Amino acid sequence: MEIFAHRGLNHQAPENTMTAFRLAHESGLDWIETDVDILGDGTPVILHDSTLDRTTNRTGSIYNLTAADLSKISAGVHFDGPNSEQYAQEPIPTLDDLVDFLNETGMGCNLEIKSNEAGGEMSLNLLEAVEERCFQRLKDRSPERLLVSSFNHVLLYIIHQRHPEIATACLYTKDNLWPDALSVCELVGAKTIHPQNEGLTPEIIKHLKQANLTINVWTVNDPTRTRELKDLGADGVFTDIADEMTTALR
Ligand code: G3P
Ligand code: MG
């Protein structure tokens, strides 16, 4: 069972920060999951939300920002886990920071390309930024080390056309998974599917397995549910407690 540290080891450090990724690596984990979007000036950054409100000391849309603004933003101020006081200066990483880390450590990465809420042209800008700053710079783009996912399946289709060697995964929420997921995955060239845990039944998993899809489920923080998913044929889970989940499954 593959265990993905969802947004890094985010119960030990602020989500989607270099510290959360480093802690995942130091804990012996093999895979992180993280999210990429772009600022208004085209700089690709590692951030889940399209606004700063939930995770930083600032508010407002990231689509109005430039790279120069990043030095004024802390991605650690809302963290309430261990050693929270030490994250006041924790920056939002750029995609370059992430790729440097992956090249240095060899960690596997599921890079989720956010469905850019600024619209179609920005989505294509984001895709080009990922091509330039990740695909071109990352040393190991093998399916064992890089998996690109998105709720935007059109982006995955374009990636498959341009870079057929890159492994892709279609993200689905519980509300839109069935019945078209199999045909969409086939159409866009994705051999992996990332369904939401909620609403994922044994029957659905059976259908996905019959289509030879690799199944990684988000977000599962209960070891009992992880064991159940494993027994049903799921291949991996995204979890906020990746270190503890790994221990629990031993
Ligand atoms: O990629 C799995 C999961 O991260 C998808 O949802 O909202 O946490 O990015 P979200
Ligand atoms: Mg994500």
Strand and helix layout:
Elements: E1 2-6, H1 18-26, E2 31-38, E3 44-46, H2 95-105, E4 108-113, H3 120-135, E5 146-150, H4 153-162, E6 167-172, H5 181-188, E7 192-195, H6 202-210, E8 214-217, H7 223-232, E9 236-239, H8 242-249
Parallel strand pairs: 1-2, 1-9, 2-4, 4-5, 5-6, 6-7, 7-8, 8-9
Antiparallel strand pairs: 2-3
Helix pairs in contact: 1-2, 4-5
The protein binds SN-glycerol-3-phosphate and magnesium ion (MG).
Magnesium ion is lined by residues 33, 35, 112.
Protein name: Glycerophosphoryl diester phosphodiesterase
Pfam families: GDPD
Domain GP-PDE: 1-249
Shape: globular
CATH topology: TIM Barrel
Describe the largest sheet.
8 strands, parallel, barrel
Proportion of strand residues = 15-25%
For the record, the count of structural domains works out to: 1
Low-confidence stretches: none
**CATH homologous superfamily - what is it?**
Phosphatidylinositol (PI) phosphodiesterase
Can you identify the CATH class?
Alpha Beta
Distance between the termini: 11 Å
Strand order, largest beta sheet? 1-2-4-5-6-7-8-9
SSE succession: EHEEHEHEHEHEHEHEH
Q: How large is the count of helical segments?
A: 8
Structural class determined from secondary elements = alpha/beta
Total strands: 9
> What compounds sit in this structure?
SN-glycerol-3-phosphate, magnesium ion
CATH architecture: Alpha-Beta Barrel
GO molecular function, one term: phosphoric diester hydrolase activity
Protein name: Glycerophosphoryl diester phosphodiesterase
Organism: Mobiluncus porci
GO biological process, one term: lipid metabolic process
